[in-house]
Design a protein that fits this description.
Blueprint lengths: L7 H11 L3 H24 L2 H23 L9 H16 L6
Length: 101
């Protein structure tokens, strides 16, 4: 049985290995950007349906990139909260043009 990762510090290198391709990282960036933008609209409109659209806008491109670019399973399936936190960390690093370590 595979041992579970216990800390975010341990999770981050795993996350980066699962997102090796620059194409995957770009797809994640744009999916997260879309999700944040649509989520903001949902909050301003106080509309739950638009919020659901925001979730789909974020996850659909990310999962596409895992299945068809990386050819692996999204980390979200095993580590949903750490995966979301890592997605935002990656998004911020790309946005600020920081080196992804």
């Amino acid at each position: 049985m595979e041992e579970r990762i216990q800390t975010f510090k341990e999770f981050w290198p795993y996350y980066l290995r699962e997102h090796r391709s620059p194409r995957t990282r770009r797809i994640h960036f744009w999916g997260t950007t879309a999700a944040l933008s649509i989520g903001l609209i949902a909050g301003l409109a106080q509309n739950l349906l638009i919020f659901v659209v925001a979730i789909v806008a974020g996850y659909a491109p990310a999962w596409y990139s895992h299945f068809f670019v990386e050819k692996n399973r999204p980390a979200t399936f095993k580590y949903p909260f750490w995966s979301l936190a890592a997605d935002f960390r990656l998004w911020f690093m790309i946005l600020t043009r920081r080196t992804i370590d």
